[in-house]
Specification:
It is built from 19 helices and 25 strands. By secondary structure, the chain is α/β, with parallel strands linked by helices.
């Protein structure tokens, strides 16, 4: 059976002018700042005018641990938004922007798939409205101003050995992970070791995604700790006098982007911190704006629920005062089989035993999300190779976990294929949600890390050197003890070993480094081998991306 590619489907979309999409939500045209005909930013002035309105219901879409078999979390997020609109609800989708690095590497884009996509797909997966470029520029302006301050006399007495602010770029480039700058003589400054992270790992990205408005943004930017003195006193971005100029660079990027689904329903696409090395959610300002404009807001959190949902609940919801009404966990029969030990080449063959063997990974996620007090439903994202017996096995397993699994065919059928899930979500959202974060603010930082490791990853212990424990205690003494923990680890496993699938127990979580993100308002705990600057694969997607004879992009998906 021949299927159209995502990009072919997206090109056939009958898009409406973005002013019409905005009008659906009651956004006056003068408060939409258009980027072409099919995308726009929503003005800060209009967003402020919504403050007195009641909030709609917030629905989180999360997933099992990602596998090469594919899960379809963004596809389900978009499909559910369309499905809710189909059954008569005023629903808005909120997703993240795509990073250029993975687009040209191997992950691909982030606009959904099949007949559950957000468009314009090509622009969203390339430069879009320039938000990531603005974040890159603001981050690197601060980097330049730190080195410039030292060059012109170092009045703040910055210890060049204790500069913690690196540089960023929105591309996978392993050669830049660890570098030496300022070589070439006196006029180029003082040589020192530093490196690059990918833009989506920047604290500036996290700050933009957690800020409520421009004033909050500038305060958080000023709070960034960039270095320490020889006496180990922190140096902040505001000490370098960079926060004002950084805010100017981010002024437009702070305004949420509105686009549309293939079914012409509104979607906010804004912000994009990585979920394995940052907090993995779209911006607070986009989510809060959507909640004022819609009855239902469907948003996603990156990768599996062990990373994305945990950080959504413990960082985004805690910081923004959000209370989710329901959660959807996306799973596929193919991924269950892969968790059950089936090779990717053999996924098309029926194997009910492998499905059953792989289901504990899904069960672990169901239990974890329930632990936050949020009602849960499982969406089985349908593939044509799935058999009735395999689907029945997943449904039976989920029922044993005290939840319901619903087969969803939105990839092939759009909103018509996800109506049952939409009705279930409405039913859950209208019932009670006893949401609470995993740990209280006043718990010690190391205990917070242990709580995540034991309750979410089901590990026995966290292994950390005395230097890491002492660093956490130092930050507690400096007034940062109330901050949540953002764990940076592999997305492929509950452990820190990406090859361990299923629902392992009895493992340890090694923490090799901690970083203070004082502006964003969390502590990053780097566990296991995790790269804050990814590399390209042996055969990157960039090799097949090109313009064809008609001037259209090929190979982006």
């Amino acid at each position: 059976m021949a299927f159209k590619t995502d990009i072919e489907i997206a090109r056939e979309a009958k898009k409406k002018p973005i002013m019409e999409i905005g009008a659906k939500l009651g956004i006056p045209s003068e408060h939409l700042l258009p980027y072409g005909h099919d995308k726009a930013k929503v003005s800060q002035e209009f967003i402020k005018s919504l403050a007195g309105r009641p909030d709609g219901k917030l629905i989180l879409v999360t997933a099992i641990n990602p596998t090469p078999a594919g899960e379809g979390k963004t596809t389900t997020t978009v499909g559910l938004g369309d499905g809710l609109n189909r059954i008569g609800k005023k629903a808005v989708v909120c997703i993240r922007e795509a990073s250029l690095g993975p687009n040209f590497g191997m992950k691909g884009g982030a606009a959904g798939g099949g007949y559950s996509q957000v468009v314009p797909m090509e622009e969203m997966n390339l430069h879009f409205t320039g938000d990531f470029h603005a974040i890159t520029s603001a981050h690197n302006l601060l980097s330049a101003m730190i080195d410039n301050h030292i060059y012109w006399g170092n009045d703040l007495d910055i210890d060049e050995r204790r500069i913690v602010w690196r540089r960023v770029m929105d591309m996978n480039d392993r050669a830049l992970r660890d570098i030496v700058v300022s070589l070439g003589g006196v006029s180029n400054g003082f040589p020192r070791q530093t490196g690059f992270d990918i833009t989506v790992a920047s604290e500036v990205m996290a700050i933009l995604c957690l800020s409520n408005d421009l004033e909050d943004l500038q305060k958080r930017l000023g709070d960034i700790v960039v270095a320490y003195t020889r006496g180990k006193a922190p140096i902040f971005a505001r000490d370098i006098k960079a926060d004002g100029a950084m805010t100017v660079l981010l002024k437009d990027a702070m305004q949420p982007n509105i686009v549309q689904t293939l079914e012409n329903n509104p979607a906010f696409v804004h912000g994009g911190p990585f979920a394995n090395i940052a907090h993995g959610c779209n911006s607070v300002i986009a989510t809060k704006t959507a909640l004022k404009l819609g009855e239902y807001v469907v948003t996603e959190a990156g990768f599996g629920a062990d990373l994305g949902a945990e950080k959504f609940f413990d960082i985004k919801c805690r910081k923004a005062g959000l209370k989710p009404s329901a959660a959807v966990i996306v799973a596929t029969v193919r991924a269950m089989k892969m968790n059950g030990g089936v090779a990717k080449a053999d996924l098309g063959t029926e194997n009910v035993d492998a499905v059953k063997k792989g289901c504990p990974n899904l069960g672990r996620h169901i239990g974890n999300v329930k632990g936050f007090g949020v009602p849960v439903v499982v969406a089985i994202n349908h593939f044509f190779s799935d058999t009735d017996a395999e689907i029945a096995a997943v449904k039976a397993y989920v029922a044993e976990q005290g939840a319901e699994a619903i087969l969803c065919k939105h990839w092939a059928l759009g909103s018509a294929g996800i109506e049952e899930l939409a009705h279930k979500v409405v039913q859950m959202a209208e019932g009670p949600s006893n949401f609470a974060p995993l740990y209280p603010d006043d718990m010690s930082l190391f205990k917070k890390l242990e709580t995540i490791a034991k309750r979410i990853y089901h590990a026995d212990e966290v292994i950390a050197d005395k230097s890491i424990r002492d660093q956490l205690k130092t930050w507690e003494a400096a007034g940062y003890g109330h901050l949540p923990i953002c764990v940076a680890k592999t997305q492929y496993s509950f452990t820190t070993d990406p090859t361990v699938r299923g629902a392992p127990t009895g493992h340890s979580v090694p923490c090799r480094e901690v970083r203070l993100s004082a502006g964003a308002g969390f502590i990053v705990a780097i566990c296991g081998e995790i790269m804050t600057m990814p590399g390209l694969p042996r055969v990157p997607s960039a090799e097949v991306i090109r313009l064809n004879d008609e001037g259209n992009v090929e190979g982006l998906f």
